[in-house]
Structures are given as structure tokens and as C-alpha cells.
Design a protein that fits this description.
The structure is a single chain. Helix content is 23%, strand content 18%. The protein has a 9-stranded mixed sheet with strand order 1-15-13-7-9-11-12-4-14, sandwiched between helices. It has a two-stranded antiparallel sheet with strand order 2-3. It is of the alpha/beta class. The chain has 9 helices and 15 strands. The protein folds into 2 domains: 270 residues, 3-Layer(bba) Sandwich (Glucose Oxidase, domain 1), CATH 3.50.30.50; 31 residues, no CATH class. The longest helix has 11 residues.
Length: 318
């Protein structure tokens, strides 16, 4: 019988790249363990100009989400505002003397975000062999995003694929393999090292801005990582990666058996740190201008107890 949906290929990759127990039976951060204190000190030395780049999209109702996987754009509501202060005495404070408070409602993975290792399951297990049922309606008892709260600091390497290929952006459905990532790094004159966080620009946010619409950015066809980059990632022992696409891997997916098959190996088996919807445009332009494709990088998530993802404002400093 032929495996035309790719179940065998997915299962083989999940077993081959399984790293459960590598950092102990209680580990909840996976490949982020590749970031050492020496690596952080070395990365801080990359700061030469004090140029600071935020890699986050604005967290507002103009974001890319359209309800796919029940995700929606952030919504801001005021609890009290300037009109209240102007119009009335409020909670014992004289009229005209007041303050403003607000609340945000959002999907933790609705904008620029990190996946936690409790985000994906395969064979009823998540990273390090923990039972998927440890993520319940009350949140994740293991592998929540708060485990990363003080861990995502180090050296970032930008791989700017469109500039390397001489195009404005990579077209939806185009898969990038490890050989192309290596070639891009070589052309940029940057070395990928153990413990790095790769920032991979496919140019999809630039494409959406040129079109004046997000279109089907959230969950639609996209350029991305080929399924077999899993081996390339494991060999290089990177700490994590983030892309400017909705889902990091190529869409349509290469394996039909499961949605986002690359993720089903990267998170539950490998324990890989994965970020998505990073805005890499300004950083990429600066790297092209000064020829330096590395930066000091700080992108710790909100320590939301039990959450399987977190919004983040990633900062690259050169």
C-alpha cells in the first residue's frame, strides 16, 4: 500500500529527531538550552551602533488574522478614560483629575509570537514525552510559554532569502531547503553557530504591504521551510528560529496527513523554539546597507502561566 498522504514520512522524522531526555526528564525549554551564558556575553559584543529594531507588528485590529483556527486580531477596550475624568467625579477623585486604564483581548498567537512547546502534539505526546492531557482547559501544566521567560537572549542571524535570490519576495508555495539556507548565509558572509536564533525572511509581509491587504496570509498559501529542513536544524543545534510568515513551513504543506507537519516534529520531538509573524523588513534593509547579518537579540515572552503561546516584541540591536 502506498503512503500517498505522508504518514510514514512524518512518523519517521518524528522518531529520528526525537530528543526527549537530552536535557533531563524535567526539561520544558528544549533547544533553548543551546544558548549558553558565554554565548549571551559574546552576542552582547555585537552591539556597535546602538541601532535598535523592533520586529513586532502593531498589536491592533488591523492585524492579519481572519478567524482561521479561531484566532482573531487584538482588541483594546478602555476601563476608564479622559471623558470620564472630564465629566464626573470617579471613585472619590475630583472631576478633572483622573487617569486612563485599559484591557486587551487577544489570541496569544494572533500577532508576532512565540510558540510554547505545549502548542503541538503527536501521538498524544508533547515535548519531552509529556502527556498531551497535561494541557487542559485550565492551561498547560507542562511546557507553557512562561518557561521561556528569561531564556530567549543571544545572537540572531538574519537570512534574507529574497535579497539572496534577487526577488522582492518568495512566492507562496515555494519551499526552501537546507542547502538554500546555507547558500544564503554564505552569500551574506555570516556563519550559523550552535545556540543561534535564525530570523528567516521570506518577504511575505512585504508582499502583503505591496498589495495593500493581508489577503490569505493567515493560514493560506505561503513560502516557507521544506519539511526536510528538520534535519538541517538538528545538525546545527540552533536555539530557535522565527519567520515573517504565519506558519514558518511551506504552505500548501508537503505532507497531507497532518496540518503543519513540520511543526509536529519541530516542537514535540525536537523541542525547537519557533516564532512567527515577525516583521523583518527594517532589520533586513539595515543588514543589506551595512553588510552585517547578525545582531544581539532579546525576545522573552510574557510569562503567562499555562499559555501555549505569547505575543512578543522582539528586539534586535546592532
Amino acid at each position: 500500500m502506498t503512503d500517498d498522504r505522508g504518514e510514514g514520512r512524518l512518523r519517521d522524522a518524528a522518531e529520528r529527531h526525537r530528543a526527549w531526555g537530552r536535557w533531563g526528564d524535567d526539561d520544558e525549554v528544549g533547544t533553548v538550552n543551546h544558548i549558553t551564558t558565554d554565548a549571551i556575553v559574546g552576542a552582547a559584543g555585537l552591539v556597535q551602533r546602538g541601532a535598535v529594531f523592533s520586529l513586532a507588528l502593531p498589536f491592533d485590529d488591523k492585524g492579519p488574522q481572519k478567524g482561521h483556527l479561531r484566532r482573531f486580531n487584538p482588541m483594546l477596550f478602555m476601563l476608564r478614560d479622559g471623558d470620564d475624568a472630564f465629566a464626573r467625579e470617579l471613585m472619590g477623585v475630583p472631576r478633572g483629575i483622573g487617569a486612563a486604564d485599559d484591557v486587551v483581548i487577544m489570541a496569544t498567537q494572533g500577532g508576532t509570537q512565540w510558540d510554547a512547546l505545549g502548542h503541538m502534539f503527536y501521538d498524544d505526546r508533547m515535548w519531552n514525552g509529556y502527556d498531551a492531557r497535561l494541557v487542559s482547559s485550565l492551561g498547560a501544566e507542562k511546557n507553557d510559554v512562561a518557561s521561556y521567560k528569561d531564556r530567549i537572549v543571544g545572537r540572531a542571524v538574519l537570512l534574507d532569502l529574497p535579497r539572496f535570490l534577487g526577488v522582492d519576495w518568495c512566492e507562496p508555495g515555494r519551499a526552501t531547503d537546507g542547502a538554500e539556507l546555507d547558500a544564503c548565509a554564505a552569500a551574506q558572509g555570516v556563519e550559523i553557530r550552535r545556540g543561534d536564533i535564525l530570523l528567516i525572511r521570506f518577504g511575505q509581509i512585504a508582499q502583503c504591504r505591496a498589495a495593500g491587504s493581508w489577503g490569505d496570509y493567515a493560514g493560506g498559501d505561503a513560502p516557507g521551510l521544506a519539511f526536510d529542513t528538520l534535519g538541517w536544524i538538528a545538525e546545527r543545534e540552533i536555539a530557535g528560529l522565527a519567520t515573517d510568515t504565519w506558519g514558518a513551513e511551506v504552505r500548501p504543506n508537503e505532507i497531507a496527513y497532518a496540518n503543519q507537519p513540520w511543526h509536529r516534529v519541530a516542537l514535540p520531538s525536537m523541542g525547537l523554539l519557533v516564532g512567527e509573524i515577525f516583521d523583518l523588513e527594517a532589520l533586513a534593509a539595515d543588514c543589506a546597507a551595512d553588510g552585517r547579518y547578525e545582531a544581539f537579540f532579546v525576545a522573552c515572552p510574557l510569562p503567562i502561566t499555562g499559555a501555549v503561546g505569547s505575543p512578543v516584541n522582539p528586539i534586535a540591536i546592532k
